[in-house]
Design a protein that fits this description.
By secondary structure, this protein is an alpha/beta fold. The chain has 19 helices and 14 strands. The strands form 4 sheets. The chain has a 6-stranded parallel β-sheet, with helices on both faces. The protein has a 3-stranded mixed β-sheet with strand order 5-4-12, with helices on both faces. The two termini are 44 Å apart. It binds D-mannonic acid (CS2).
Amino acid sequence: MAVTYRLGRGALASLPEASRPAVSPGSVRAGIVHLGLGAFHRAHQAVFTEDAVAASGGDWGIIGVAPRSREILDKLRAQDGLYSVLTVGGGPDRARTIGILAGFGHAAGDPYGVVAAIADPGIRIVSMTVTEKAYRMDPAGRLLLDDDLRAQLTGQAPPVGVPALLARALIRRQAAGGGPLTVLCCDNMQGNGPRIRGLVAQALEVAGVDMPAGVAFPATMVDRIVPATSADHIRRAAVALGAEDTVPVVAEPFTQWVIEDDFPGGRPDWAAAGAVLTGDVTPWELCKLRALNGVHSAAAYLGALAGREYIADSLEMPGMTGLLRRFIADDIAPTIEPPSGVTVTGYGEQSLQRFANRELGHRNLQVAMDGSQKLPYRMLAAITERRRAGAVPVWGALMVAAWMRFARGYADSGARLPLDDPLAGPIRDALAAAPDTPAGAVGALLGVDAIFGPELAGDAALRSELVRWYGELDRHGVVATVKGLG
Ligand code: CS2
């Protein structure tokens, strides 16, 4: 199909009906400030919110805040805030335009503008998808305070980071008599709501104030696989949409959102858009973090070490799905009381099917990044629980050993692998100071306290299992090891 239009309000009438936004762009007043305007938010919460407003109304437009780069803002503004979601896999490509964005902010360039936006009484929800590392917390959930963060919290420096933005905005909102507010963390962390409550309370304490009344921090589980948009996705989005879009997002057909229903200032009718509103998110969170994300990370480290580019390639390695099934059944399932009507193995099976969606083009290296921040929720919590129950989680140990091999920075072929991780410095230092042997490397990495903590580092049975697997991977490589296990 010849593409003649550039996405923007003027092009909407020319798009096929099914590709137009469900709300009239610019007609919905803002009720939400969202920090983190990346692909995930635009393919997940923004879609749920647009559908909720289309179904039930409400002033729930989203002010999207980009934390650092302003490139996305410029591109979205050039398209009147419109972008498309390209759904791929399980049929022909489908593109849909989203028109729920009601304004923009830039945390790095105009932090006080963002603070003012959150303090506005029309805003009743501030949500976030900023990734684990942006919260600057240790494994126990305490703020990693340094002089820079202190200065941001006490108002001596602009509040450019997430903890300071939230704290300064709450202070300003309270001073202005702003009404109740919900802070909604949509990042992949266990107990994300309570964790962020603790973090914000600590940030406010440093700033010298108490947590204002009427602020809620519900937990939420978000789920949709949304890889980084490639040039090929941009091309396919243009074809499916019939208009050129410089910032489409690509996603799988599956989408799920489970939300603890605690919104003192009200909320969009997300249930009308298919979200589950519940009193307890925990069973869903645990399934998601361990039987989806944990397995995703495992496939990413093993695949990257074996030189595979995409998650779908990793799944196709002989023995891989069998091995991942054992990991789920033996080491993850015993740690989870699943939601009613769900089995962990069934949930895990669905995860494997979703990972096999080749159309997504999801790179192993994208899932592998930030391992130090992801591993604790995705693998180490389950391993700790199995060890406390007296079991040795053999497959879990293999997956952690695969991360350890990945952290060395080399694939089995000897090709370099990038260690894109906020703790890359300490990880490299620890490895450089230890002998390059399985016991040396495992010991060095277990000693990185910000990842493993004393309980796992002091566990002799776990350590020997890690050393054994590290040695296996070292001697035989991932391909042969996985082949023999599946
Ligand atoms: C992935 C997640 O990049 C990663 O670490 O495991 O982003 C995953 O695709 C989503 O959590 C799925 O909801």
